[in-house]
């Protein structure tokens, strides 16, 4: 069960962040990521400067390592 995604509070400052979508919602069942249909979130980056998108993508990868999802085992 997805308990929390601490990374989300760090995304808002990224210059190229357009939006993000949680899949599933907090409290929902999760499974091991196998492909794009089983990810925990989708993050959309858009900016006129492609280098900014690259920097923000690299920052997201750093944040993923620093702030892993918090999960709970279903009873």
| CA-CA gap between termini | 10 Å
**Total number of beta strands:** 4
Describe the global form: elongated
| Largest β-sheet summary | 2 strands, antiparallel
Secondary structure: helix percent = 25-40%
Mean pLDDT: 86
Written as H for each helix and E for each strand, in order along the chain, the element string is EHEEHE
Number of domains: 1
Physical arrangement of strands within the biggest beta sheet: 1-4
Radius of gyration: 13 Å
Structural class based on helices, strands and sheet pairing = alpha+beta
- Low-confidence segments, given as residue ranges, are none
Number of helical elements: 2
Strand content is 15-25%
Which quaternary structure do these chains form? Answer: single chain
Task: Tell me about this structure.
The radius of gyration is 13 Å and the shape is elongated. A two-stranded antiparallel sheet has the order 1-4. The longest helix is centred in the last third of the chain and has 17 residues, at about 50-65. It has helices at about 10, 50-65; strands spanning about 1-5, 15-20, 40-45, 70. It has about 80 residues and is α+β, with helices and mostly antiparallel strands.
List the helices and strands and how they pair.
Elements: E1 2-4, H1 8-11, E2 17-22, E3 41-45, H2 50-66, E4 70-71
Antiparallel strand pairs: 1-4, 2-3
